[in-house]
Amino acid sequence: MANDVTSTVVGKVMDLLVGVAKREIGYMWNCSANVKTLKVEVETLTAMKETRQQRIDVARHEGKDPGKDLESWMKNADVKISEATKLITDEDESKKTCVAPYELYVNLGTLYRYGKMATKETSFLLQHKKEADVKQIIEAIEDDKIQIVGINGIGGVGKTTLAKEVAAKMKNLFADIVFIEVSHTVDYKMIKESVKVAARKIIKGEKVLIILDNMWEKLKLEEAGIPRGSDKNELDLRRQQAPEDGDVTYKREGILQLKLSYDYLQDKVAKSCFLLCSMFPAGGTIGVKSLTYYGLALGIFSNPYINVQNAKDIVQGAVDSLKSSFLLLPEREDFLEEELFKMHDLVRDMANLITSEGNDKFWVRSGIGLREWQPEEHLQSCKKVSLMGNKISKLLDHELAFPDLDTLFIQHNDLNSTIPPKFLQGMEKLKVLDMSYNRITLLPQSLKQLTELRMLDLSGNEYLCHISILGELTCLVVLKLRSTGIWDIPEEIGELSKLRVLDVSHCEYLRDVAHGVI
Fold first, then answer.
1. Over the Cα atoms of the chain, what is R_g?
2. Using an 8 Å Cβ cutoff, are 96 and 90 in contact?
3. Each residue of 354-368: pLDDT tens digit?
4. How far is it, in rounded angstroms, from Cα 327 to Cα 496?
5. Cis peptide preceding 375, ω within 30 of 0
6. What are the helix and strand counts (H, E) for the chain?
7. pTM of the predicted model, to two decimals?
């Protein structure tokens, strides 16, 4: 019994120590990404400060007092922006002091210091921005001329959390506070029952705060049993200038506003990653590793010889930047991908708008239940096609003219047996081919014609056994065979001299690796 207790305690202590160590080491490995995130937050807070300065100037011009709280916030913002800017400059200067041939031997203590400080400063900036939002909402609620305050924004930006924090700060000012989850389909009977007591208090003249969360359409207050005076105004506060999730009226405006966020991105890698994410199904999750492999194959990095880990760090920084701009939403960690994220539907609409024009056209039909694909002639100019997450079981057995196509996503479908011999003909410039998680058993000879292919993902095709033909794809950089039915890795794979990633994990039947392959 004592031994069991001791083991449990030791196990918990070890888990705690490992967690601490992982976080501390993360400051070193993620230093660059942390600093990039800090730069984004400095820019965002600076823009917010400029907006509030305009409010102060207008108030003074009208002979009004802007208020000590606003002026205090401005002074604190100046201090925090100055401190963060100094950290960014110092970190940049520290990298210049390490010159070749010693640049590989970067002082780990320096990386740790700046990685941790950047994380801390970012937290300060985010908190300061949040305080400004809370203050603005409280001021609106305290204004007797305003009866309804709307907090709009895309999913995941923290509207609910913000409303709850405001309610907590103002709880002593109201006779009652009611929180109601409205959801997609409005249940007026439920809402009316929930506000019954609060409604009586409103009629008596008492102050009541009703929070209606997750609204997707305009609510008829009278039908919901919520009393409303006719002489009061409404104030619409928009987080990140994005429309409410289900507001059709504002949808086009929202897309245009979001496009400004995309256009504002300075990092080319972040822009490339963002557009690649739009190829995934609505609501689907995307992983840092997958995005890194696609990026390596498509050459989105300035250094063509970059190693996989450095590429992954850059992608992680790009993803963090996109999340800070609310162009991507955090999801969860996954043992395969390490970190997952997703794209809000409205943001995805904006991305699809961008990729439907110009020289780098995308054609995205992912996750919409397609059972077959009949390519139309106008698609011949597309560079990227996504059919992932459908129910396609057969592909066309004739040559398709896609002279500029560099990416084809057809993973997570119902493809069975073999790929038709002629299907891949006419796609000579293909660099990324993802056919993972289908039921493919044989690979076509036409695969050899993809002489520029740099990434091939066949993961999850559990009945696929023979892969010697892949030795012909000499440009391959990433080859994923995870969870396939392969018995061996033949000597032909050893001919892939440019290969940097070979994933054969969870191949239950793998027994032999030819000499010289690894």
1. 28
2. no
3. 998 878 899 999 999
4. 37
5. no
6. 12, 18
7. 0.58
